[in-house]
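User: Could you walk me through two proteins back to back? I'd like the raw sequence and the structure tokens for each, with a short line separating them so I can tell where one ends and the next begins.

Assistant: Of course. Protein one, sequence then structure:
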Amino acid sequence: MSTFTAPDGTRLAYHLDGEGPPLVCLPGGPMRASSYLGDLGGLTAHRRLVRLDLRGTGESDLPRDPASYRCDRLVDDVEALRVHLGVERMDLLGHSAGANLALLYAVRHPERVARLLLVTPSVMAVGIEITPEDRLAAAGEREGEPWFADACTALEEVTQGRGTPERWEAITPFWYRRWDETAQALQAADAREKNQEAIPVFFGEGAFDPEATRTALAGLTVPVLLITGEVDVAAPPRAMTELAGLFSKAETVVQAKGAHHPWVDDPAHFVGTVDEFLG
């Protein structure tokens, strides 16, 4: 673990692993420690991963001001990390909710981004609506799974605003291609690796200006790669197609039978796709 200081004085931690040019990785959750990203399916054989623990998560300190958890305010932390690393331009990866932060950083500091990777991204920063039908259509591709019946019923309840903590728990197999020991261990760690108090602040009022962000993304000239999962209920294919259309040029790769953690679902495909894009 290494540390640096954010503009407001908060000590932030990041983790280095692997060889090659750096790839700065922003975790999702939201507000989950970066440890769940691991080596991104073996990507460390090709790139030096720089996993940032967002303020108040992992080994980073709690900030004095809880309002600083808001997504747009975290952009300054990412820029401080770039300066600390001493790089003029950086390759930037955002997973899930972390993709919102990656997008806001790219909009505010386009000259500091070399390449942008969005992995099964959340789309709140750009105001794309994901409908219950979008999620249920993706879920329907999993019908043969032994856990499907209860999980699908729970998903219907959740998308209708009737999700209890127990029903949210019931849909977790959808986040992974295989609901095996590896997936179950990752999911079991989810709650304890998140800063629960920070989550509502991350998405709080004022965090996003979708219209302005859309306009700025249309003029972004850096290479963009979207990696999506064919059966991902969190980032379903229709919404991902709409997101890709916001860029003047973006490459989209759909991982066959992939869900929300493509480096877990098919490590070889994920690493090969990212390595080819990064060159």
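----
Protein two, same layout:
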Amino acid sequence: MNAVAYHLEPSRGAAGLTIAAQPMPEPGPHQVVIRVRAAALNRRDLMLLDGSYPLPAMPGVVPLSDGVGTVIAVGHSVTRAVVGDRVTATYFPRWIDGPQRRSHVVEQYGATRHGMLATYAVLEEDSVVHVPEHLTDAEAATLTCAGVVAWAALTTPLPVLPGESVLTVGSGAVALFGVQHAKILGAEVISITSDLGKAERLSELGADAVIDRSRTPDWERAVLDHTDGHGVEHVLEAVGMATLGQSVHSAAYNARITVVGAMPAPGVPTGNPFGTSYLSIRKIAVGSRADFEAMNRSIAEHRVRPVIDRIFPFDRAERAYHHLRTGDPFGKVVIEVS
């Protein structure tokens, strides 16, 4: 088979995705080479294409942090994987465990390091993560970003406890993973969406209550009514500053709100985001390898299956980007590499 790779030139805007032949890579002493089977898109990949992501993409980088493949070669010092293993990689190649440092953030697959939208990908050994056996390649390819950030939001620094309430704001991939993770942790889940069809699917996914904000614009009041005026203990805020105020008003005393996703600077609030509430608000960036592996153990134990909206063939990668941007998908957009 002729190996090929897509490359990203952000300065060219929508025309910035190109394709070229890919030579067979050789692993370094602490690297593995995988034959990529599937890759998945995130909103971050649209921002990289547009040049609006906080971390500029390396010109000509192979895009996409999310993907899965089979190990076909290992460096001579590698101990975390062997030829034949089915693996993915962490979003940040160097963040293994503990607090995130700025030095972790400046290295990202698909941005400053070549990513997964290629026949072959070279991974740092420390970033290698084995995927749950019951997942298909397409499903396993979706975990790295949306799955891990939703898990980290609900389990760090302290996990959601059984019987607590979780509010998920939005119906993108992070929110969908959030519903699945929260139900495993034993929480009652309230989901906010703006689409009646998605509301029904969120209920099918496990949400105990779904509020359509297009019909209930003051949805924070509905959340308080549903919780008898108490509010929710945890908020997974996957929309951003546009809904943060309502999330604050939905929260219980001493609740925790976790904001996820890269946002442009104009979205930073200029007023007091807490209002009169007593709670904590934090913003996180995906998670560590330890978070990823803990999530995978939970997914394997409970036989969770990620939600996939659509799978595109490799030679239709540009259409996959377009679908993510304009198609309002419910679940992950996946590209089948082989």
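The chain has ten helices and 15 strands.

Let me know if you want the two compared in more detail.
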